[in-house]
């Protein structure tokens, strides 16, 4: 897995606590990602992992598609890695705003001096890992039964 572009500090817009974060570019890293719907942990999924499912309608090198959810193990907190979930503050567990996060991400990014701008969403080429909360290639070895997917 490629190393992050940024390892710096952000500030939660809810509780004003400071936290560490890292940003990953999925195009450079040949990966996709998802966030846990309960704790915000980031799952980074390498396209080179032989367990990567063959899903015809899923884009790669960005947030996962909904069909990929059934192929991932649950988060260690008991949550689910889902399309549309967001990173969360490690202190108050509130969802972090991708738009408000631009203030510290762009301030800390060396490329911002030459015009790079944060994507201002949690679904594009870049993903963020908050306070080192990440899991790599947490693919299931067997698909979920239909009853488990409905929950």
What's this entry about, in short?
By secondary structure, the protein is an alpha+beta fold. It has helices at residues 26-29, 98-108, 146-150; strands at 6-11, 18-25, 31-36, 42-46, 81-82, 126-130, 134-136. The chain has one domain (6-138).
Protein model, in words:
The protein is an alpha+beta fold. The protein has one domain (6-138). It is 13% helix and 23% strand. Strands 5-3-4-7 form a 4-stranded mixed beta sheet. It has a 3-stranded antiparallel beta sheet with strand order 1-2-6. A hairpin with a 6-residue loop joins strand 1 (6-11) and strand 2 (18-25). The longest helix has 11 residues, at 98-108. It is globular and about 40 Å long. The model is unreliable at 1-6 (pLDDT under 50).
For the secondary structure, the number of strands is: 7
Compute the number of structural domains. Answer: 1
Cα(first) to Cα(last) distance is: 32 Å
Kindly name the structural category: alpha+beta
Q: What proportion strand?
A: 15-25%
- Count every helix, treating DSSP H or I runs of 4 or more residues as helices: 3
Radius of gyration: 15 Å
Mind sketching the topology for me?
Elements: E1 6-11, E2 18-25, H1 26-29, E3 31-36, E4 42-46, E5 81-82, H2 98-108, E6 126-130, E7 134-136, H3 146-150
Parallel strand pairs: 4-7
Antiparallel strand pairs: 1-2, 2-6, 3-4, 3-5
Keywords:
151 residues; alpha+beta; four-stranded mixed β-sheet; three-stranded antiparallel β-sheet; 3 helices; 13% helix; disordered N terminus
